[in-house]
Amino acid sequence: MVYRFGMPTAPAPYRPLRDDVRDRIRDRIVDGSYAPGTRLVERTIAADLGVSRIPVREALQALVLEGFAVDRETRGIAVRTYDAREIAELAGVGAALERVLVGHVVDSVTAEGLAPLRAVLDEARAAIDRSDVEAAVTANSRFHDVLASLGEGTMAHEVLTIVSQRRRWLLAQHSDPAPIHAEHVELFEAIATGDRVRAQQITEDHVRTTIENALRAEGTAP
């Protein structure tokens, strides 16, 4: 038991080092620091993160199980690449779930609940205006996280959480964040005015843009 100001407080929950290492490697895959096909070398990553090779090895195996990396046996572990079919499937799964979630949000969200969504839109707009593409892409991706949080407690939110990290990668594949931000603004306005049909249609249209950008980033666009 830990005491603070004479009062007992619960100790921080234990978190294995491999989990922290896994999260840091995954973040680099999602933001493109480790591009698709890049070999993930234990020794190099361990030195970069300032840890031993054991948690890195465990983290890489976890990322293989999560689908972010592939074990090429004699050639080692590498960042996973996605073909056109897989990208379309991932986007389609996310869209179907988000369409249901958006319907729930339109029916239940309050003005107070919309505030964080508005804030992340403003953050993306500011990043675009100062030509900070990386910050704008990150803010655009976070828009979906905030939107999902507004549907917390629904089955759609629960299932979206399972695929959230892969969706983060998919949503980060936009080299030009301005059109994506414009679509997010449209979606926000539809939600704010209670237009369920319009909000769900925008969600579906948004998927096509996401797929096209991801295919272009992977070099598999037709």
TrEMBL record:
<dbReference type="InterPro" id="IPR036388">
    <property type="entry name" value="WH-like_DNA-bd_sf"/>
</dbReference>
<dbReference type="GO" id="GO:0003700">
    <property type="term" value="F:DNA-binding transcription factor activity"/>
</dbReference>
<dbReference type="InterPro" id="IPR036390">
    <property type="entry name" value="WH_DNA-bd_sf"/>
</dbReference>
<protein>
    <submittedName>
        <fullName>Transcriptional regulator, GntR family</fullName>
    </submittedName>
</protein>
<dbReference type="GO" id="GO:0003677">
    <property type="term" value="F:DNA binding"/>
</dbReference>
<keyword id="KW-0805">Transcription regulation</keyword>
<feature type="domain" description="HTH gntR-type">
    <location>
        <begin position="15"/>
        <end position="82"/>
    </location>
</feature>
<dbReference type="Pfam" id="PF07729">
    <property type="entry name" value="FCD"/>
</dbReference>
<dbReference type="InterPro" id="IPR008920">
    <property type="entry name" value="TF_FadR/GntR_C"/>
</dbReference>
<keyword id="KW-0238">DNA-binding</keyword>
<keyword id="KW-0804">Transcription</keyword>
<dbReference type="InterPro" id="IPR011711">
    <property type="entry name" value="GntR_C"/>
</dbReference>
<dbReference type="Pfam" id="PF00392">
    <property type="entry name" value="GntR"/>
</dbReference>
<dbReference type="InterPro" id="IPR000524">
    <property type="entry name" value="Tscrpt_reg_HTH_GntR"/>
</dbReference>
